[in-house]
Every structure is written in C-alpha cells, then in structure tokens.
Amino acid sequence: MYLSDDPGLGQARRSVHRRRIAHGSGSAPSRIAGLGAFGTPVFNVECPDPPGCAPVGAAGCRAAIRAAVREAIRLANNAATRLEAAIAVPPASRDTNAKRTASRFKALFGHDPAHAITWAGNEESGVSVAKRLRAVARELDGGRRVVFHCRPTVEGCAGNDPCCAPTENAWFHPLGRNVVNLCVGFWNPPADIPNGLSVVRFRAAVIIHEMLHMLYEHLRDEGQGRIRAACYEAFALRADGIPADPFDVCGCRGTTPCP
Questions:
Q1: In the chain, where are the structural domains located?
Q2: Which of 18, 67, 144, 230 is the most buried (most CB within 10 A)?
Q3: pLDDT band (50, 70, 90) for residue 98
Q4: pTM score above 0.70
Q5: Per-position DSSP letters for 20-80, written without gaps between them
C-alpha cells in the first residue's frame, strides 16, 4: 500500500483491515538501484537472521520471493495481453475470451476497456491499464533491482516507524526508492482467501500492488477504478481466472463495509 506524507491520512489508512500500508520517511532506501539483464528477475532480499520472515526462515526468503516475483511477472503480462486483445476489435466483434476479459475489467474498473478517457487524449482505458501492467512486469524482469525488506511486526506501529502493524501485508514509500517492505500478512495470507488463490499467487498480487505504487505515484488506496492500485491487482488475478482477494474487490468497487 502507498502512504502519503500526510500524518493524519497515514493514521487513517493504517486502521484499515488487511491492507498494504506504506510508512513515512523512516523506510530505508534501496542500496542498489542498478539495472539487471532483461528477462531475468534481479532483486535483493533483506531477510534478517534471526528471525527471518516468519514463517519462512532466512535461508528460504530468496526462493519464496523469486517464486512470487516470477508469478507476478506472468500475471501482469497475461492481464496486459488479454486486455490488448479485448480492445483490438470493436466490442461487438469480441470473441468469448475477449468478452470475458472485458466483463472482468468492467466489474473492477467500472467501465468497458474501450471506454475513452477524455483527460488522456481519448485513449482507451484498457490501453493505459495494459501499459502499467507491462511496466510492472518489465521492471520486475530485470528492469530495476528491487529490494524486498522484511519488517518486524509491532503493535501500534505507525507514522515513520520502519515496522509493520499486525494487519499489514506490505508497504511502499517513495522515499524508499526501490524498496518494497514486506509484513507478516505477506508471509501469512489470511485463512479466508478463496480457493484458487494460492500462497504464491497471493504474494505475487501483493508485489504487483506495491510495484504499481513504486512506478505510478498517483495510484492510491482510496477511490474506485483506475486511480486505485487494488483494481489492477485484482484484475491481474481475475484476468487469469483466479479469484482475487475479496478485500481488494470490495475496495475497488467502493462497496462498504469491506471484510
């Protein structure tokens, strides 16, 4: 989740159940911001030993994150490909798969992917969404060296503290540059996630969410549709026929209260 420097707003976001929260300037910047070879995920893992990233020990952190990163790349590229196919033809000419993609898009973003965005030069909505998902995949797949940093869970963690509250999955703050901070929720998905959303896919979706904040500062965790990172995260899963986290779907649609 992304957090602005507004302390009042930050506190409000921290109280939300099972969300991805970002902290203030206390987050450590990435020590490496170089480029990797495209086609190969390049990342650093800061997994303290002890305690590791419970329940994953320090020795298993890299393998677990690599699996999640690879799945995030696949999900993001797949969603972009399906969107591009859906908007390549007039809505009336879409085949079954394209119609399904458009329906899933509309359920989360509130309009058809061919909907023209007036303030974006009448570009189709699906075009920019696909571009953003492609960018996430590209940057994870060797475009930049992302640092995944496990943070300790602290009751009452708030403000600029480099820690996580018990209900948080992950957070990003722009002052952290290329750092995605991982919380207990990332390593221990909630028991009520739907069948079909495996642990690896759940973690991959969280990574997509935080990468969107990293690459597009205007994407937030409030509002509905294109402005909300949860909509992209949920669509990346739904485009592959995978159930999304009910919390993301609820927040994306603006339904209240969310679970």
A1: 7-253
A2: 230
A3: very high
A4: yes
A5: -----TTSPPPS------TTS--EEEE--TTT-BTTB-GGGHHHHHHHHHHHHHHHHHHHH
